Amino acid sequence: xxxxxxxEGGNLGGMVAMIILIIILGALFISFxxxxxxxxxxxxxxxxxxxxxxxxxxxxICLLICGLISGYICGGGI
Length: 78
Fold this sequence. Notes:
Elements: H1 13-42, H2 52-75
Helix pairs in contact: 1-2
């Protein structure tokens, strides 16, 4: 008996989409937490202001790093 992959089982496209959505939401949550830690540490002394542009850039950088890590894990490495 052959083992079936996830997509060969039939009608599992919704499950694959749900897994991808969970990965994206998890990456957004982790990026938001990391960006908030960066913001708090940047404004710790009180003399500097963390702008909205810096917040968005930090969030995008964290998302890219999360994407690279998840791609490495899901892809099986090099």
